Amino acid sequence: MFPSISLAQEIGLAVLLVAALVWFVGLGHKLWDSRFHHPEPAAVEGLPVIPGQRGAAAHPMETVELTEAEQQAFAEVIRTLPLR
Question: CB 3.0-4.6 Å disulfide test: which of 5, 24, 75, 80 passes with 9?
Fold first, then answer.
């Protein structure tokens, strides 16, 4: 093939070119499939990233009763937060 390089180098170059061609064809197939393949809606469903919040009837261990002073302090903190 090339008179200035050895046979081992020619074989290495051929293997490298074949590997690059296989990679390029595989990448093309992957991009082509992702462009036109739309997954089924059932396949997308899974665990939500943020779980849904519970209603007012939550578990009693998840609620905290505040005293009147704590409620007033919390209301004051909320009032001091800057509104955008």
Answer: 5
